[in-house]
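Hey, can you fold this one?
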Amino acid sequence: MGTIQVNEVEAGRADLAAVAEARVPRESFLDALSRSGVKRLLFLACDAAAIALTNETARVAMQWLFHIPRSYMSPAGYQWFYLPFLLAVLYLAEGYQNPDLRRPEKELAIIFRAVSLSFLALVCANFIFFKDLGFSRYLFVCWYGLALVIVPLFRQSLKGLYGMLWKRGLAQQKALWVGSTETLAEFQNLLAVQRHQGYRVVGVIPASEPSERYPASSCARARSDALARWEDAVDKLSPQLVVVSLPSTTPGSHEWVREILHRSKARGVDVEVYSDLFATSEFNFELDDFSGFFRFYATPVWSRRLRATAKSCIDIIAGIVGSLMTLLVLPGVGLLIKLEDGGPIFYRSPYIGQDRKTHHYLKFRTMRVDADQVLEKNRELRRQFELKFKLHRDPRVTRIGRVLRKYSVDEFPSFFSILRGDISLVGPRTITQPQAERYGQLLPKLLSVKPGLTGYWQVTGRQMTTYEEKIKMDMFYIDHWTIWLDLWIIIRTFWKVLRAEGAF
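Sure. Predicted structure:
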């Protein structure tokens, strides 16, 4: 997110002359794509195309496999019934409630539930409205299965298109930041960890928090001044979103935020309140309509056990399938490694387990046999290695090793460790003892979960990130883990591996 810096004349007082002089370009066609209404229409059209495509694909497949007459699978003009019906059910299932504000794993969970509910409702509707006509059960099973894949795929493709536009500074929501300037950097870092660039901060109205330098009375005046200048900033910058940094519990802070909410509502501007309290991952929360306050509640024990069981099942399945794949490619890969330098086929990669002891998992060897000695002798090479514990264009990697790394084939033997339960398919990346020092006080948190073969860092930045960013991404995964996040990471891993993106 880019920012237009606003000079502070006094504590918490914004010099909005700088904002007034800032050039805000006129809204173009691409900028109009950032509006919530336009996004909902695009997602609606995307779902309609996906549902129609899956229906036609399922019918062709059923005709080809079972030679079922086309007339038996659906009556003439049936698409004019099922398309509005399914889209209406998706709408009622909150499939179009600000889809651009949801993280990918949340989107995946909502679409799974919405599509399942839609097809269940469609079967019931067919029994009521078309009970005299025959429908192929095979068609509905095939159609439902394809929809579970194609609808999320189409939606993710649309989000990917938005991501490409955002990287070029297009179709971003113009945001006005109001509140503490110290938390602005935190807010931007939070979005950077997730590689989210949907916002562009076009103005900043600071309002400092009380401190030894700025007493409460001075900050109260600053907030009053910010409110007085707020409407002027909205008129000049035309933001689509106001992001309010919720102050700490000090006199007048909540009244200040409430006044901004009222003014934004009157002008039709969305408001997002930034607060560490509401961003907590320890509890879920929802609005109590009777009291008007948020209620925080912990995840039930049965739900946590169910998610842990689901994760274990995914690990077992992945371990079995991956181990079989490893056995299939072992003869060919092993022969190529032996032919290159005659060294061992496998490399025992060390890592710190949850018990803080060093363990090992197998990988296909991709480096020279004397790789460690080469690193010790070359000081410049070691200095570069200690920055990220990875080297770009590492001279120690063999020719066959580069190919194995490019497509992550060197990781295949790790499935044996997944099958044994030593590591998980998805989790924070394994670390060694020297790397543990970089985590500092965050190390206990990192070791509270099993390390994984793939993870949030690998599919978000892979090798194209700094080590500090990697640590933040590991912490983000631990804080926001759900089984849907694991499924999203697995899907993204396949895509990253096929494209050989960020691998070296």
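The longest helix spans residues 301-341. Let me know if you want another pass with a different chain boundary.
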